[in-house]
Amino acid sequence: MLANSDIALAFSAQRGKRGRASSRRPRTITPVAELGNSAVPQKDSNFRTIQIIPSVLPADWANMGQCVKELEASGVDRIQFDVMDGNFVPNLTFGPEMIKACRKYCSVPFETQLMISQYSSETMLDEYVEASKGPNGEPGVVIVHVEACDHLHRMLTRIRTLGGSPSVALNPHTPVSMVENILDIVDHVLIMTVNPGFGGQAYIPTMLDKIRELRQIILERNLDIDIEVDGGIKADWTIAACADAGANCFIAGSGLFAYPTLLEGCDEMRKVAKAAQNGFILKQGQTLHEIQL
Ligand code: DX5
Fold this sequence. Notes:
By secondary structure, the protein is α/β, with parallel strands linked by helices. It has nine helices and eight strands. The longest helix has 16 residues, at 262-277. The structure holds D-xylitol-5-phosphate.
């Protein structure tokens, strides 16, 4: 098993090989002070940059424009739109028009998770890639589910050709081996930590081994890929365990919108994830305050 320092070393050697979606922030060494007034020492500053990405599922859909504006002001790194067609998952949300309509309210990068049937993703891919782009046409993240694509390699290649940032998602039952042959053409891999279709579900802890397995493969093959997790992620042991296992992008719906302000929620999640990268891993039932020295 590779030690964390080996992981960090491998990644810093990799950074920036392939021009990528403009959503990635340049790596910064975080002074201890910025982790809040705790004296958390920097254990390893070479982990991949933590990204906090709200899912808009819990938002007020009648005011989605205002909501994305508030999310941007709260310092999130990207905004995720959960597209559901009542076919691939037993729930129905919105299409590319809603995502496109939100673009003029903020400039933060967008991410679209396509929880839709193969037919819908193949016939409407162009619209989703276009709607997910940044204000100046920067690539937006477009995530297809491996379970919904017989021609996954073709689909991911098409997203890149259309000017998007191709990414793939795995449902909880799907093994990492299902995506091993396309890791060289994606920018992100999303490991679902709930069964897709609804917000507010309980996080599935057994997904940690899958994160570790994927991280191992990424390191061994020197790939420049972010690992995302989505479902039941909160500013507690759930985000801490995933950050420690190697994930760096965290999707949160109910866990973020539950805070009095989105800013507090975003800050708290980032603090707990960073503390975990520095070796302070919150355990179940522990709160952030208990690890402040
Ligand atoms: C579920 C969606 C998630 C969901 C997360 O299918 O993909 O993004 O909105 O919501 P929470 O964080 O409440 O589990």
